[in-house]
Write a structure and sequence with these properties.
The chain has about 210 residues and is α+β, with helices and mostly antiparallel strands. It has a single domain, classed as Cyclophilin-like (Cyclophilin, Beta Barrel). It is built from 3 helices and 10 strands. The strands form 2 sheets. It has an 8-stranded antiparallel β-barrel with strand order 1-2-7-5-6-4-3-10. A two-stranded antiparallel ribbon has the order 8-9. A hairpin with a 2-residue loop joins strand 8 and strand 9.
Length: about 210
């Protein structure tokens, strides 16, 4: 008779351990609260540990609050995280190592780090792919083949990404492809729970370019 409650307690204990383990291994989730709506991102620290750590540090420091999506190219991507509404470039921490060789692809809905032509030059700026951009994927370790590091994916708000992609752009502050009406990141916060993944929306035709700083 004593055997049954003993087994039940073991099962309850095992369930609590499993729940605790799952919680500890949940991928980080971030919400970008923009002037056009919210975008939720699931990050992949198992694939890009240095990049995710770097991104979350900027999140925790409120670095992105008040920055804008300063480069929007229809059929390619939306880029932000580096300039204020006055087109002033924000100071950053040292660049992070390029982890593009992690197996993740620059597919529609993924978030990746923007950089210069120098492979290990990414700091705070990021972009969301609005189409599959195979030309940005890792091909080889050389400067021309290393690609752009994907470190997460949009789980909710891809419709917001599409709305941002559709805004009218022009030249501002000596830069091309800047939205004529500001698209502001009003806040960027870590979330306690992971939102459900939305069904994918059909992509637009691809266009060639690179997400430069």
């Amino acid at each position: 008779m004593k055997f049954v409650p003993f087994c039940a307690s073991v099962l309850v204990g095992a369930a609590l351990v499993a729940t605790s383990f799952a919680a500890e291994n949940e991928n980080p989730v971030v919400t970008l609260k923009t002037s056009m709506g919210d975008i939720s991102l699931e990050l992949y620290p198992d694939k890009a540990p240095l990049t995710v750590e770097n991104f979350l540090k900027y999140i925790d420091d409120d670095f992105y609050k008040g920055t804008i999506f300063h480069r929007v190219i229809r059929g390619f991507m939306i880029q932000g995280g580096g300039f204020t509404s006055k087109m002033a470039k924000k100071g950053t921490r040292p660049p992070v190592k390029n982890e593009a060789a992690n197996g993740l692809k620059n597919e529609r809905g993924t978030i990746a780090m923007a950089r210069t032509m120098v492979p290990d030059s990414a700091t705070a700026q990021f972009f969301v792919n609005t189409v599959d951009n195979a030309n940005l994927n890792f091909k080889n370790p050389g400067p021309r083949g290393i690609g752009y590091c994907v470190f997460g994916r949009v789980t909710q708000g891809m419709d917001v990404v599409d709305k941002i992609e559709a805004v009218t752009t022009g030249v501002r502050g000596g830069m091309r492809d800047v939205p004529q009406a500001e698209v502001v990141i009003e806040d960027a916060i870590r979330m306690e729970t992971k939102p459900e993944v939305e069904a994918p929306v059909e992509p637009q035709p691809e266009a060639g370019a690179t997400p430069a700083l």
